[in-house]
Amino acid sequence: MKIVLGSQSPRRKELLEHFLVPFIQVPSDFDEESVPYAGNPGKHAMLLSKKKNEALAEKFQGDVILTADSVVFCNGNLYNKPRDEEEAFSFLTDFSNQWQSVFTGVTASRGPLSYTDVEETRLLFNPLSEEQIRLYHRHGYFLDKAGGYTIEKTGNLVVSRIEGCYDNIVGLPLNTTRKLLLKVGVDLWDFLK
Predict the structure, then answer these.
(1) Domains of the chain (ranges plus CATH)?
(2) Which residue among 8, 47, 49, 151 is least enclosed by CB atoms within 10 Å?
(3) Catalytic residue among 63, 69, 117, 167
(4) What is the model's pTM?
């Protein structure tokens, strides 16, 4: 038995490496941009996660497939990965001194069994000046991250308060992941390091 982690995210890989569970990392070739946003950020993240999982199911029949997708929601708008630095700048400008939510949809499947759930974490951003945003982006890679920022390392300079699961902001809420994997026969408690 192995888990197929359907993601190219190094952060999701690092979170799963907290356990001794055998897994391989294989990016899903599902195009996230092909799914239009229908107004519910939690359902959107779950749908993206499910579609990523389905794209791998044919190739890894019988294996446990774990996929996730994170989106950021603020003031009625959905924020995915920024296309460039200017879009990332506009994202953080929007987030300045505002509450936002990170929604991560997680799907675990094995053969005909497939389960999906979502985790929400709320964050309050500090007031950010243009100079601070430019400096933050100069010192950290942000283009592959929903919302154009990362919470690890210096992320707490931009965020003043977190309500909910920290791992969710990183990209893989471990408690939700544990519950879903248990439904397909994998108990993370058996793989503690």
Answers:
(1) 3-191 (3.90.950.10)
(2) 8
(3) 69
(4) 0.94
